[in-house]
Specification:
single chain, alpha+beta, D-Maltodextrin-Binding Protein, domain 2, 7-stranded mixed β-sheet, 14 strands, 27% strand
Amino acid sequence: MNFVSEITRLLEIAATAAFDAGRVIMEIYQSGELHTEIKQDETPLTKADRLSHEIISKQLQQTGLPVLSEEGMNIDLSERKKWEYFWLVDPLDGTKEFINRNGEFTINIALVWKNTPIAGIIHSPYTDMLYMGSEEAGIFKMEKGKQINCTPLPKKLHLKDILNKEKIRVVASRSHTSNETIKFIEQLPNATLISMGSSLKFILLLENKADIYPRFGKTMEWDTAAAHAILKASNRGIYYTDLKSELVYNKPDLGNPFFIAF
């Protein structure tokens, strides 16, 4: 089996699922009939979250790989640790932004190998743009039916490269900025702040519209995995706050630690 062609095939299936789910999300968004409820973890859930999950899960079944989704069943580690490859899905990342109707929400689909995301899809239904990529297949942006190549950095980006900049553009969550995040930003020389919702923060890094994204607050594996795969392919990364290693996935606890992405 040609690994690159197989990754490309899987990404194409995931992209189709994301586009199909995105159309349904936008129908609900434009109708205003969100049917919002609050989950046990006190986060909001809408009709769009549920339908997107159903569409994506059904379409990914054709790959024969297990699916771990934010809106799916809780799957015990005893089962998950048997998986070599699996899909990690956030059917609607940025539900608060969706409810607030500012357009800053995405669909995230990652292909994970053991503990590492190796390919990712981020789709913005509001702008109808989709980003997809892996280290093997490259990185692409789909915009208005056209596929545009995204060029990786020539070498791996390091924090010292950021700190040497004359001005540092920091992107932070629009809805979840913490005191720890603010303190981190205050330590950076000549920092300017950009607020953004969902995985669009990672896209700003990819497109060189921001330099660093510190997150000292709660996130889950499905919030970051797709972006992590795409950023790795671009010679960027999502790191533990000690900056020595990158986030790992399919842990007993699916919550992420605090992280810094650049």
